[in-house]
Specification:
The chain has about 450 residues and is an alpha/beta fold. The protein has 2 domains: about 5-185, no CATH class; about 185-435, Metallo-dependent phosphatases (Purple Acid Phosphatase, chain A, domain 2). It has 14 helices and 12 strands.
Amino acid sequence: MISFKQLPLEAKAAVAAGVVFFSMMLSRSYLAEQLELRTRRWLLRLQMALFANALMLIGSLHVWRSTVTTFSKSSAASSFCFMPWKIAVFMFLALAHSSFFTLLFLVAEEPYLFSLAAYTCLGAYIILIFFLFTLGSVEQAYKFLAGRGAKAGTGNKNSRTAMKPVLAVMLTVVLTVVGLLNASRPPTVNSVEVPVHKLPSTMNNLKVVLLSDIHLGPTVGKTKLAMIVRMVKALKPDITVIVGDLTDSEAEIIRPAVEPLGELNSPLGTYFVTGNHEYYTSDVSNWFELLKSFNIRPLHNENVKIVSPKSTDDWFCLAGVDDIEADVLRYSGHGMDLKKALRDCSSEHAIVLLAHQPIAAKWALQERPDINLILSGHTHGGQMFPLNAGAYFLNPFFVGLYKVGQNTFVYVSPGTMYFGIPMRLGSRAEITEIILHSP
């Protein structure tokens, strides 16, 4: 029987990831009610960081072998550039691995340079892994189809082996720069007109501004939030809604960065529902209190009547549900409860629902097909290549406007900022201006 010491490094990393994952499940199932909230908060975040790093270690070993070990066997190893290159690759991998720990130690009013560098390396790491795997797969497919596996000369083989990591690194550098530049631009304002069945005629052309996935934390701070608030105010919305993932940190730590939200002054109110990242902070109650101090109302499985300024008899139901991740994390007193959220919301009036994840939107429509409009986020439009494909296949609604049935629409925001990695490839940050039309 093979002992743990005899396992290859990749297998050891996989075992470590499995152990950490098991400890996470154990903590959620048996320790959630026994641990103090602050202790549980730190344990969950530490476990997630360790789990991500254990998985990344498998990829990092492949990166090191592809970009360093490969060249150590060639004439390039004697070059004066080889040692600086080894140090650069090591620092790159170290920064990428450290990114997850910045959530624990480096969150403030404005992002630290170290956090920005670490998450940039994480983004480049994902792209590099993709290209190394893809180019390697293409190379193997070519060998198989050409039937030249063992017949190639040693010189040509070494040359082709060296070309693969060089090309992968070059593509990674180019796409990283493009992604950084794209993410540094202000969010685009996307205006969408949505017909809402049973919306009173006095509320025709009502303007709702949708924000989602701002992710205040290691790489998004007060300056970017202030820019978003200025853009929202310029649109002069009747209602502003924030559909989750506003933050990645505790309210007390990042409170100064949230202050610009107090400038939102939509006449019919500003509303908020939780996303999965709010529950990762384990600080939802404090976030609710902080948002209330800025006149932002959390919709915690509840609803409000949005009354027409022109007639008190005309109104529609605006409801919000907790994110479904609250159930997975066994977060006490929270979890998606559609019946409670839509209490007193009858099909006689228009119903607009705020639900962070598109899968929650799908479940809501299965239970209440009379909902007229659901506003979601969560997917980030994939945020960056090559994650776009995964986000597309894992969500029933990916990004943009969808018509479901005769009188129902779902709009999924691609996100107003980004999570961690300050890059966007194949997607664009957005502030959505939704114009409601009565039929």
